Amino acid sequence: MYIVELYNVKKIYKSGNREWIGLNDVTLKVEKGEFLSIIGPSGSGKTTLLNIIGLMDSPTSGHVIIDGKDVTYTTEKEKALLRNKYIGFVFQSYNLISFMTVYQNVELPLIIAGIGEKERRERVMEVLKTVPGLLELKDKKPNQLSGGQQQRVAIARALVTDPPIILADEPTANLDTTTGQQIVELFRDIKERLGKTIIMATHDLEMLKYSNRIVYIRDGKIEKEEVK
Predict the structure, then answer these.
(1) Percentage of the chain surpassing pLDDT 90?
(2) 140 contacts 101 by C-beta, under 8 angstroms
(3) pLDDT on residue 128
(4) CA nearest neighbour of 171 among 138, 196, 145, 204
């Protein structure tokens, strides 16, 4: 069963009299529980594609279907509810809040979702145990952590609402090769152990060996796909 479906998605950006194509007639289907890597050079459309799948942006034309529901023309409020239910985001720059502890950073999405304190604590502690090496760091601040540890916190934060889809935008770009491979191995483990669908954008060929399928994108178009 497909959890993400894009049909003939086009995204045109405009600035003054200029316009350029971010995505050009992209059709893509992602199966539930798949680990998909999207690879392409800078400016190829990887982030635009993730933003449209993650309902952070809307296509100029085409259709976006999440878990069988056409979400292309939903309101911003509906998109926010759908994001909270279906999507966990992991970013290149971690996006942790510097004055909050690891525990508080992971807890934040649950506060936003209106989850009660007792359930929040149970869920945060569970996810801190799920992501290796985090439980003993729960009272640390981000500036006390290595880059790899910060990215693990970001992954825990993405998991805490139990979304079926994790979107990772260049999650290893700020890490050395060994740490980057550990992070991608963690994504593979999350897919296998928790049944999550992982969609990762990268430009690093080293990180592709952990995914089930690779989509190559250039100039906003999918050039080819490779199933492993």
Answers:
(1) 88
(2) yes
(3) 97
(4) 204
Four-point Cα dihedral 105, 38, 48, 187, nearest 10: -10
User: Strands of 18-31's sheet, edge to edge?
Assistant: 18-31, 2-15, 61-66, 69-70
What CA–CA distance (Å, rounded) separates 213 from 36?
5
Which helix (H) or strand (E) covers residue 227, if one does? strand 221-227
DSSP string, 80-124: HHHHHHHEEEE-TT----TTS-HHHHHHHHHHHTT--HHHHHHHH
List the domain boundaries for the chain.
2-95+163-227
Torsion of CA 135, 141, 146, 150, to 10 degrees: 70
Per the model's pLDDT, the better-predicted residue between 42 and 166 turns out to be 166
Alpha carbons 16 and 87: distance in angstroms, whole number:
32
> Which among 117, 120, 119, 137 has a CA at the least distance from the CA of 129?
137
The DSSP 8-state label assigned to residue 9 in this structure reads E
Q: Which CATH class is domain 2-95+163-227?
A: alpha beta
- What pLDDT is recorded for position 164? 97
What's the whole-number mean pLDDT along residues 167-195?
94
The pTM score is 0.95
Q: What is the mean pLDDT of residues 5-21?
A: 93
Spell out the residues 6+ positions from residue 180 whose beta carbon is closer than 8 angstroms to its own. 172, 204, 206, 207
